[in-house]
Design a protein that fits this description.
The chain is an alpha/beta fold and 58 residues long. It has one domain (2-56). Helix content is 28%, strand content 21%. The protein is built from 3 helices and 3 strands, in the order αβαβαβ. The protein has a 3-stranded parallel β-sheet, with no helix packed on it. Strand 1, helix 2 and strand 2 form a beta-alpha-beta unit. The longest helix has 6 residues, at 19-24.
Length: 58
């Protein structure tokens, strides 16, 4: 994945941490969107439908 990002390929990175966890440690991968998992279920419009999406939480 890092190779794609470094090459400038379009990749959407989503930080799925709960708001309380995010507030406690707001550091994230540069450019990542913070979207809670419950928002994904609502089909968040910020996510591309035709591109690669990486979901992560810590």
């Amino acid at each position: 994945m890092k190779q794609k990002i470094d090459a400038g390929e379009p990749v959407t990175i989503v930080d799925l941490r709960h708001s309380l966890d995010f507030e406690a440690e707001p550091e994230t991968i540069p450019g990542a969107l913070h979207i809670e998992a419950k928002e994904l279920e609502e089909k968040d419009r910020r996510l591309p439908r035709d591109g690669e999406v990486v979901l992560y939480c810590t």
